[in-house]
Amino acid sequence: MPKEAGDVRDSSASEFALDRRNILMSGASLLALSATGAAIAQAQESNGARPAGRRPNIVIILADDLGNADLGYRGSDIKTPNIDKLAKEGVCLESFYGQPVCTPARAALMTGRYPMRHGLQTLVIFPSHTYGLPTDERTLAQALKDAGYRTAMVGKWHLGHANQKYWPQNRGFEHFYGNLVGEVDYFTKERGGLVDWQRNGKFFKEDGYFTTLIGNEAVGLIESHDTSKPLFLYVASLAPHAPFQAPQDLLDRYPSIENKNRRTYAAMISGLDDQVGRIVAALEKKGLRDNTIIIFTSDNGGATSALTATGARSEEERKESGGVALGEKPPASNGNLRGGKGTLHEGGVRVPTIVNWPGKLAPRTVNGPLHMVNAMPTLLALAGGNGSPDHPFDGKDMWATLAEGAPSPNDDILINVEPVRGAIRKGNWKLVKIATLPGKTELFDLAKDPGEQNDLAGDHPEIVADLEARLMAYAKEQKPAEWIKAQPQFLGAQGKTVFDPDFDIDDGGLPHEKPVIPQG
Ligand SMILES: [Ca+2]
Fold this sequence. Notes:
Elements: H1 10-24, H2 30-44, E1 57-63, H3 81-88, E2 91-93, E3 96-97, H4 102-111, H5 140-146, E4 150-156, E5 175-179, E6 190-191, E7 194-195, E8 198-199, E9 202-203, H6 210-223, E10 231-236, H7 248-251, H8 260-285, E11 292-298, H9 306-309, H10 315-320, H11 346-349, E12 353-356, E13 364-366, E14 370-371, H12 375-383, H13 399-404, E15 413-418, E16 421-426, E17 429-434, E18 440-445, H14 461-477, H15 482-486
Parallel strand pairs: 1-10, 1-11, 2-13, 3-14, 4-5, 4-10
Antiparallel strand pairs: 2-12, 5-8, 6-7, 8-9, 11-12, 15-16, 16-17, 17-18
Helix pairs in contact: 1-2, 6-8
The chain binds calcium ion.
């Protein structure tokens, strides 16, 4: 039996990391060392005893644009028995915040920092854009790799594609199989006429359905894993993001759903659930399940408007390739939550989240607010890794909340801030501020009004003042938004930008459909 995953107890994990850093950093400045020590001390601050024994394997499964109400355990008619089992036997986070859209959510997950620190707070990286997650940010994969983990990613990246320096294999992942831009065809893996599908830098055409293929790769990685090291596996599903496409055998599970897009969307989620089941089974077969923490979540809520459901395309393309016609209702459901993908209301940002670790995390439901930025500090405290002294976490170690039901460690939660809008939550109060003139400030009591129907801003000026001050403090720290900076290049065939009122979305497709990907 090979030795498995280094016997590092929590109490010694940070010392281990510090020793290692000291060796690695001999000759580094005293300042840098003391900053590292401070970061480690910060990691040690958290309450709640961590489990003794081997460091866990870590599997993060990220769904894309998943409707808050679209899983079996949340009352949906969509069948997700494998995800439901993780929920039943794990910790369900009922007020966990992603971001309004893909890129900022992934940036938060990968860095433990709010995307406004990276200039990634606004919208997503389009195929024609050349920016990415700044390379001086330390990623979760880098930190775990430095801590001795085997690091692998399958699926959708969406944190930069136009320069190889942004690619996952140059951001801490030793193995990468999947696509770089936000959305590709599920069968051809093409976007804008280019195949965006690679394994470790080599682009290739491959038959098969996106969701099944990444499941195959994930299972293969688990089966062939050398258990002398712990494993970090990041499974970034494209499903159930548009285009709405599924193979016939999945569609056949939902003969009673008449709406074509809803039927396909349900099939896509069941396809993802199948792969979750296979991944868990592979971990069990390999003898790793008991020492593996699985996080299942989504980057943002379900799309409730056609514009946010899919990348902007001509109306014809939208209909033909599994998109949603303008004016048509997309198939996702966020239940009673207000709004959807792209908005700062709960339907856009509150994502169904499960943390499951058999024998270490007892089943429970957590209602306190938590954020995607908490994942990295929580996982590094378990793994004995550390972040960057130059880029302190916004997230907090939430282990005590997961393990003991302690209150949320976050004093406040920045839901997001951009040059034109922002939202923040403290306790049950949530402030949403739209800054484009004439502007709007809303205040909601989410304990009594989770659907954000009753704006109480006029009744509680002191709470509005406090939350506005907090939001503005964050706003002043934000980097210029890269998406906005990129827009001077964003000209349509008519020589007009998207901000021109008569810009024609049907004019032969948009230039942002043309990916800028070096064929490495
Ligand atoms: Ca998304």
